[in-house]
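Q: Predict the bound structure with adenosine-5'-diphosphate.
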Amino acid sequence: MKNKIKANLPILRYMFMPIIYLIFSCSLAAGLLYILYNKADALYRTSKYDFITYSVDYFMYLKSLLNGDLIYVIIFTIISLCIYTIISYKKSKNIISLIENVEEMANGNLNNVIDLNDAGNIKKLANNINNIVAQLRNITIEERKAQQTKTDLITNVSHDLRTPLTSIIGYLSIIEDDKYKDEVQLRYYTSIAYEKAKTLNLLINDLFDLTKMQNNTMTLNTIQIDLVELLGQIASQSEYIFKNENVECRTKFSEDKLIIQADAIKLVRAFENLITNAIKYGKEGKYIDIVTKKEDNIAIVKIVNYGEPIPTIDLPHIFDRFYRVEKSRNRNDGGSGLGLAITKNIIELHEGHISVSSDYDCTIFEVQLKLDNI
Ligand code: ADP
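A: Predicted complex:
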């Protein structure tokens, strides 16, 4: 029962608010009238001013015309109505302003903000409407961004798929039309078409994986791994590439084992991406360092190269899919700009963190992964 009354209190308050305003206005008017009557009576008796005597005389004349006390009723009603209008004007003005603002929002102006000079429930309602509209505005912005990303993705994918495909069709049509000179040229054209087909295959697989990761449909087959051992294996397996590119790989591994729970295949792919990038874009620096460190319960891996720095303007976008630094875009080494996006997704799937810093001394890709509590 108590709760029922408590729940109905705001409703009752709203129902009776105008009546309370009216009672308050009438009481105030009655009080004022009483004070006015007494003051006028006292002044009439003592005043030396003609103005007051004339006014009171005129009032008495009006009173006699209007059947006695009816004049008091008229004055009382006028004063009450004036007070009631003053009190309820602000509230009504705010409600009208609220209705107009909401109508503008409903017509699509989501930048509109309701600003009321009021306190209490109407202000609360206005604030809640402002919050809902702000959320709607954010959702709309996010949706527009997602739409733009989709459009960009389709444009990039079409471009990146078309380039190798055009070469494949070109070389295969030379073969099909018997336009090659001899067996050697035939083999040469075939091998180019084959290489381009492999690039295409790689790109499609990368795209497929990235989409799966970003849609959260990729599962991890985690096992216990020693990160130091894993990096050592990757470094020794990449030895021939280091030699080919004339780069020395230096490893500075921590004494401690760095045991983590991870999907070995995916993690190898992430670190291979970072190491091949370090070779591809930093081989002029001659050295590549792979450093591991333990900090509290975090394993830190740094892949460092000493080549040309990544321009500061590109750093915030380096992990975006299809993003390539201007110079790299003009290189013809099969890069698609998906490598770092995939790497970041793999690290984040492992609840880790990846960051990059680059200046004229060196470029560092730092990966942080949670250590397994054994
Ligand atoms: P891709 O290598 O296919 O272009 P990535 O996503 O792996 O794509 O890299 C994006 C861009 O980041 C590259 O085009 C390159 O310009 C730059 N980059 C990546 N790694 C390095 C690095 N270690 N040193 C300098 N630049 C790098």
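A: The pocket of adenosine-5'-diphosphate is lined by residues 273, 277-278, 281-282, 305, 307, 310, 318, 323-325, 328, 335-341, 363 (CB under 6 Å).
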